[in-house]
Amino acid sequence: MNNSSNSDFRTVRGYQLANHQDGQLTPALEDYLEMAYRLHLENHYARVGQLSELLHVKPSSASKMISKLAALGYLKYDRYEVILLTEQGQTMGEYLLARHRTIETFLKLLGSSNPLEETELIEHTLSPSTVSDIDMLNRFFTDHPEILRQFTEFQKTSDTPPALEN
């Protein structure tokens, strides 16, 4: 390996910290905003109790994260009232939900045994351009079902290298 590429490596946490310093939301904040956006689509608002229930966290944890999102300008929040998304929150929430759906669709096309869990684990690590490319690939497979069928048949007949077996 040459030395210039070695300096580009970081741990997952190192990349997260570098991105956070660039003003990006943390993965946890993204999850809360995405869920608030999902509730917004259904009801035009969210509540702390709903978020805590849907994300399987304590209401006090949800309240802290909502306060952080409000401080960043994504939400309007009164401690005991409804949570409303700002224009910035709606825009980001829409992107986060689209990203989630794109990745989950892709993993389903690949035959993932647990696409929701895998989506939650990887969606935060992908750049917008990569998500766009995956969306294009999803659309390609949708527009060319014969190629998706060929890929599926290829999967069935291909040997998985021993190092990649579960």
Helix content: 55-70%
Spans of at least 5 consecutive residues with low confidence? none
Could you say which overall geometry the principal axes of the C-alpha atoms support? globular
The whole-angstrom Rg is 19 Å
Largest sheet: 2 strands, antiparallel
Number of helices: 9
Q: Encode the helix/strand succession as letters.
A: HHHHHEEHHHH
Distance between the termini: 30 Å
Number of strands: 2
Helix/strand class: mainly alpha
Strand ordering within the main sheet = 1-2
> pLDDT average, as an integer?
88
Strand content: under 5%
List the keywords:
single chain, 166 residues, mainly alpha, 68% helix, 4% strand, globular
Give me a quick take on this structure.
The protein is mainly alpha-helical and 166 residues long. It contains nine helices and two strands; from the N terminus they run H-H-H-H-H-E-E-H-H-H-H.
Task: Walk me through this protein's architecture.
Helix content is 68%, strand content 4%. It has nine helices and two strands. The chain has helices at residues 3-6, 12-21, 27-43, 48-55, 59-71, 87-110, 115-122, 128-143, 145-157; strands spanning 75-77, 83-85. Strands 1-2 form a two-stranded antiparallel ribbon. A hairpin with a 5-residue loop joins strand 1 (75-77) and strand 2 (83-85). The longest helix is centred in the middle third of the chain and has 24 residues, at 87-110. It is globular and about 55 Å long. The two termini are 30 Å apart.
